[in-house]
Design goal:
Layout: E1 2-7, H1 13-21, E2 25-30, E3 35-37, E4 42-44, H2 47-54, E5 59-60, H3 68-75, E6 81-85, E7 103-107, H4 119-125, E8 130-137, E9 147-154, H5 161-184, H6 206-209, H7 217-226, E10 233-237, E11 240-253, E12 261-263, E13 269-271, E14 275-284, E15 290-291, H8 292-299
Parallel strand pairs: 1-2, 1-6, 2-5, 6-7
Antiparallel strand pairs: 3-4, 7-8, 8-9, 10-11, 11-14, 12-13, 13-14, 14-15
């Protein structure tokens, strides 16, 4: 089976590698063009492009994959099936109609739940205890095609978005391979999505990153792990920005203002709207990642100081 693979983000790498290891013919990888990154804004290839080139696969990086010129070029590869994993651009007809088996897409949620740009962070923010991966047959809509295969998994209480993404990317790779074999053998089953259960996972905004210490410890903990390791949840200490990367809920409650530092000797512990929350891993602006203990030793936070935008009240 001749495969054309569309992918950009690291989530797609396990699938690309597995399909090649299994002997499927990857005739081309289509990825976003190099983007400026780092302090020097140097154009940098996507993670998927780097893997493709290491493995000797032809790389195409159109600015507009739905443009006529690219459609003609892709047609010349005569693919049997298109596989899309975290590509970052919506594909339209007639591009979708080029492969004789069409396109399939790996999505990191239990569709029809959490369609859209940020399914993993939104699931963790919502406190989901179950997630999964779904392979769909792509249509003109966004993540709305028929379900071909799906795997459900438990979400662990301390699991971050980065950790869940890694786990789902590996499970998803196997699921995509299984689906391609079923398509080739003519035994894949299409199951239309139930639109009445569809929910949307919109792109993250700057406001999503701010920690509101008035919220419950569970809500804040969910937000922190949903945004870890990138882009990170934000609070402020002595008017300087802190990125919080990992936390732990303590059973103890204190009737004091949310955001107040309660312990700074045994651990960096902060009051919330409910229980106390220990900040296990954090990153001061422009600095490296620190443990809570390293932060205490370096910045000497005092019991009674508050995190957040409370400068005028202190």
């Amino acid at each position: 089976m001749r495969i054309v693979f569309f992918g950009t983000a690291p989530f797609g790498i396990p699938t690309l590698k597995l399909l090649q290891q299994k002997g499927l013919e990857i005739v081309a990888v289509v990825t976003n063009p190099p983007r400026p990154q780092g302090r020097g804004l140097k154009p940098t290839p996507s993670p998927v492009e780097l893997v493709a080139r290491e493995n000797g696969i032809i790389v195409l990086s159109p600015e507009n994959p739905n443009g006529r010129d690219f459609i003609e070029k892709l047609s010349s590869f005569k693919p049997d099936c298109g596989v899309l994993v975290a590509y970052g651009v919506i594909l339209k007809e007639p591009l979708l109609n080029i492969p004789r088996y069409g396109f399939i897409n790996l999505h990191p949620s239990l569709l029809p739940h959490y369609r859209g740009a940020a399914p993993i962070p939104r699931q963790l923010m919502d406190g989901c205890t179950e997630s999964g991966v779904t392979v769909i047959r792509m249509d003109k809509g966004v993540d709305s095609g028929d379900i071909l295969n799906q795997i459900r998994v438990e979400v662990y209480p301390e699991e971050t978005a980065g950790e869940l993404e890694t786990r789902l990317s590996l499970l998803g790779a196997d699921l995509v391979y299984k689906t391609l074999i079923e398509i080739k053998e003519g035994r894949v089953k299409n199951q239309p999505q139930n639109e009445s259960f569809a929910t949307v996972a919109p792109k993250l905004t700057a406001a999503d990153r701010d920690i509101d210490w008035q919220k419950s410890a569970q809500e804040i903990h969910n937000r922190i792990r949903a945004l870890s390791p990138e882009p990170g949840a934000i609070t402020y200490f002595r008017s300087n920005r802190l990125i919080i990367l990992r936390s732990r809920i303590l059973s103890e409650k204190r009737n004091i203002k949310p955001g107040t530092i309660v312990y700074s000797a045994s651990g960096l512990v902060v009051a919330t709207g409910t229980e106390l929350l220990e900040l296990v891993s954090l990153k001061p602006a422009g600095k490296k990642v620190l443990t809570g203990r390293d932060f205490i030793n370096g910045y000497r936070p005092q019991v009674g100081e508050r995190l957040g935008r409370y400068d005028e009240e202190i």
